[in-house]
Design goal:
Strand content: under 5%
Number of strands: 0
Largest sheet: none
């Protein structure tokens, strides 16, 4: 059995928590715009902030939460 890369999984979880829990779009995985535009955008931002966190060695739960808050503020603006 082949190993599945964790990158699509964390992108899916990011999209799930942001879109479904906020009530914005419960069926984002059916919509073409959600798969082709929104999912890669969430994944790119997640990987960007994860790279910053790993590079600066700030990976505690509270620090990762702060990176999530920074992304939310960026997205809201």
């Amino acid at each position: 059995m082949h190993k599945i890369s964790p990158i699509p999984l964390i992108g899916t979880l990011s999209m799930f928590f942001a879109e479904v829990f906020s009530g914005a779009s419960q069926t984002w995985f059916i919509n073409g715009w959600g798969i082709l535009v929104t999912f890669p955008l969430y994944l790119a931002h997640l990987l960007f902030f994860l790279a910053i966190a790993m590079r600066t060695k700030r990976t505690s739960l509270s620090q990762l939460y702060l990176f999530g808050v920074m992304f939310a503020l960026y997205e809201a603006g």
